[in-house]
Every structure is written in C-alpha cells, then in structure tokens.
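== Sequence entry ==
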Amino acid sequence: MSASPWLVVPAAGQGRRMGTDRPKQYLTLDARPVMAHTLTRLHAAFPGARLCLCLDPDDAWFDPDWVPFADWRRVAGGAERADSVANALGAIAGEARDDDLVLVHDVARPCVDVEDLRRLLQVLADDAVGGLLAAPVADTMKRDDGAGRVALTEPRAGLWHALTPQGFRYGLLTQALRQAAASGVTVTDEASAVEALGHAPRLVPGRRDNLKITHPEDLALAGMILAAQASAYSETTPEGVAER
C-alpha cells in the first residue's frame, strides 16, 4: 500500500436544486468558490495525496489555480456520482495498487474538519475494508406514507448520517462499483456499493458541521460554519503559528 492516499473529488454535478446560474461548487463562499475551500481543506490534511478531480467535460467555470495539490489530474465526470468515481478509478488503473486507499469526498462539503480528515486516514490505515466519516442521528426520524403524512417513527438508535470522505481499497472499490453497474443497482455513496458485496464499512465519528451544500439556504449556513471554525481555531492557536 502506498503511504499517500488517492483522493477522488466528484465535481461534475450541475446543482440544479440551488436554482443558480452556475453549479454549486462554483458559488462564492467567503470570497472564494466552494470548490477552492474544499480542496484547501483536503490539502491541509493530505498534502502528499494524489488528486483526481472529476469535472464535466464542458465545464467552463473551473480554474486550475484553485488546486493546491502538486500531483493532480482532471478526469471526465459521469452522469451520476458513481460514474465519476468509476472514471477516476479507471484513470489511475495503471498506477494504483489494489490495496491503495482511495478517499472520495463531496466537492460541496467545504466545512470538513482537518482533524477529522487526519483521524479518518489513521483509522483506515490498517482496515482491510475501509469506512467513512459519519455522525449519529440526533433528530427524531419520521417515515412518510407517500401522501405527506407520517406513517411511523423510526427508532434512531443505531442510525448514522453518512458523511464524506469515504475511503476504501482501490481493488475493492473498483469491484464494488463494477458490480453495482452490472446489476443495475443505484448507489448514492461508495459505502453502499461496498455493502452490496457483503462487507461492513467502518463508521468513523465526525463533526456534525461537515455540511453538504445542497439547497440555497445551505450556502449561508456554510459561511457561518467556516467563520465559527476560523474563530475557534484562532482562539486555540498560539501566536505565530500559521493557520492550517
């Protein structure tokens, strides 16, 4: 296994639920695009990682100056997230070893904590399957009846919110996505594809402020989270120490 992980960042989505003139990864957050914030966080935790950035072939918004990684490549994104990840795995097929760790992170999660990222890598270093950042469900969970009314209340004990990054061995993740595609199974994250092979990914507790920007109000919330994180970091960092 290589000492440095591979990073895959799917960023080919159009973000139509945001109702804006550009994909959500290019919306401005604290004077910088969301994508730039996300890549900066990943680089702070994994400066030696090798990045596959999955972009729409016709993307006219992307600026390579936002990428802080020395070793990175642009990969054509697919129609769905799983297609983009599969394209990235195919692009590194001649370089990656089966036991190399591949971390997949949503481009729309710019608030992921650097210490969470480092802890995830440490926990998964010796895990044969892999796992994901996740947070235990805190809210009461309701299942609807299909007509806008509550059918039942789901017990929240043992329920987790799946976050990213999600990290798995190159060989296993490649097999899982190929099997899902061959079976016509729709997977919304890498963990579900690996689960379909009969494996049990590791749940690694992460901070609840690892927000995924999906709806218009999420952008303002992400801005507040970044400001709060910066304030908390400055209060605990000795004078003269560079900000991470």
Q: What stands out?
A: Helices lie at 34-45, 81-91, 114-124, 170-183, 190-195, 216-236. The CA atoms of residues 62 and 156 lie 40 Å apart. The longest strand covers residues 160-169. The radius of gyration is 18 Å.
